[in-house]
């Protein structure tokens, strides 16, 4: 199974800050990586797929990059509605696996 | 607008069985693979199972293989998860999710989730 390791597990940031979250796969997954945002009590929301493709309707301040084993989600200017938990997910092979999550908190 | 609505009994005893349903609307159901993802209370996301659009291919997490069965009825636009031999560690919110068009098994639409509690 492919293990997905996210870091940091939590980050404190202020509105307007640039935030970077990383996700590392235990083996190469090409660009088969997605990022999701989840707010408390809500279902996850797809932000980025295929490592760097922005899902329709998602603000352009979200950017995904990387390939192989190392990936990054960058929020260029954090907005109040961005405080949430973020997960990466690999789709290279079954079983599909998620990272452990990164909670973005208000500083 | 894509809508996914999960349903099923919420509380079941250890060793018991339960079938979850997910009613889909707003898209051509048979054209898309579907999946179940769960989230234990206060924990992260765990993929459970997936099924192709035709229903001929199915996939499972090791943690549920042999106990859970995914299926679909394309005439009813409904996804199912039959859960047998339930354990306390199966307690979670279960989400059904629609797979993104284009090949990658990423999830572009999710249901609101249903809490399943396995307890005596």
How are the SSEs placed, and which strands pair?
The complex is a heterodimer of chains A (107) and B (120).
Chain A lengths: L3 E4 L2 E4 L5 E7 L7 E6 L6 E5 L3 E2 L7 E6 L2 E6 L9 E6 L6 E2 L3 E5 L1
Parallel strand pairs in A: 2-11
Antiparallel strand pairs in A: 1-3, 3-8, 4-5, 4-9, 5-6, 7-8, 9-10, 9-11
Chain B lengths: L2 E5 L3 E2 L5 E8 L8 E6 L5 E7 L6 E3 L7 E6 L4 E6 L8 E8 L7 E4 L3 E5 L2
Parallel strand pairs in B: 2-11
Antiparallel strand pairs in B: 1-3, 3-8, 4-5, 4-9, 5-6, 7-8, 9-10, 9-11
Principal-axes shape call of chain A: globular
The ordered H/E elements of chain A are: EEEEEEEEEEE
The coarse overall form of chain B would be globular
| Strands of chain B, total number | 11
Please count the beta strands of chain A (DSSP E, at least 2 residues each): 11
Strand content of chain A: over 45%
Distance between the termini of chain A: 36 Å
Kindly name the structural category of chain A: mainly beta
Helix percentage range of chain B: under 10%
Radius of gyration of chain B: 13 Å
Strand content of chain B: over 45%
Q: Spans of chain A of 5+ residues with little confidence (pLDDT < 50)?
A: none
Identify low-pLDDT runs of chain B: none
Q: How would you name the oligomeric state of the polypeptide chains in this document?
A: heterodimer
The profile of the biggest β sheet of chain A is: 7 strands, mixed
* Alpha carbon gyration radius of chain A: 13 Å
Describe this structure in words.
The complex is a heterodimer of chains A (107) and B (120). Chain A is mostly beta strands and 107 residues long. Chain A has strands at 4-7, 10-13, 19-25, 33-38, 45-49, 53-54, 62-67, 70-75, 85-90, 97-98, 102-106. The mean pLDDT of chain A is 97. Chain B is mainly beta and 120 residues long. Chain B is 0% helix and 50% strand. Chain B has no helices and eleven strands. Chain B is globular. At the A-B interface, strand 4, strand 5 and strand 10 of A face strand 5 and strand 10 of B.
